[in-house]
Amino acid sequence: MVFLNEGVNRVRDLFEEDVFKCQAGEGQTAPSASDTGLETPDSTTLLTPDTVVADKAIQVTHTINSAIGGGTTYAEQETQLDSGDTSANRIVHTPLAKGASDEFIYITTFFLRSI
Predict the structure, then answer these.
(1) What are the tens digits of pLDDT across the range 64-80?
(2) How far apart are the C-alpha atoms of 23 and 36, rounded to whole Å?
(3) pTM attached to this predicted model
């Protein structure tokens, strides 16, 4: 059986429609498939992302502008689905201190492939 590109792109569209919010946090524990969200979320970063779709891919851009989170050290980020009830992913990175004039931009690309 072959999963056609048309079918993959339909799944992509359903996923993109379900993207709800993104959020950053301070947790530094390594991510695992059993995570259910951020370890230490910062509610001020719970924002609606921009999404762009391409063939078999969705790009999600989460921008934390300079008015948010000054003085916080961020080390994790997630994309939420379904009104925030489900986390699609959790990334952990080197802790970065956000100054009052800094803007943080997280760009996540979800790529769907047929096998």
Answers:
(1) 999 999 999 999 999 99
(2) 13
(3) 0.93
Number of independent structural domains in the chain = 1
**At 112, is the pLDDT very low, low, confident or very high (cuts 50, 70, 90)?**
very high
Q: Which residue has the tokens 């997630």?
A: 78
Q: What is the CA radius of gyration of the chain?
A: 15
CB 115 within 8 A of CB 3: yes
H, E, C per residue of 82-95: HHHCEEEEEEEEEE
Domain that holds residue 16: 5-111
